[in-house]
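User: I'm writing a tutorial on reading structure tokens. Could you give me a worked example: one chain, its sequence, then its tokens, then a sentence or two explaining what the tokens reveal?
Assistant: Sure. Here is the example chain.
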Amino acid sequence: MIKTVVTVKGSTIYTKDKLKSFDKVEKEVTFTDSTVPTVQSVTAKGNKKLVVKFSEPVKVPNIIAAAGSSFKINGSGLHL
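And here are its predicted structure tokens:
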């Protein structure tokens, strides 16, 4: 677990009921999962498909957004 203090700054931050406002809010946050998923295995399924198994469930759009165009096989970029 990782504990850190998160600071939110803005011109005006309102409470949910909009009765109070603040210039800055600080809150201690605990991240319970701070380990990046790792690739456990890659299996070829035919000539045009790979099945990649990660160490924990991941959302494919998040992986693509994070990795961008860095997916490569034998030095060649992949089109996703």
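What the tokens reveal: The chain has two domains: 2-31, 39-77. The longest helix spans residues 60-67.
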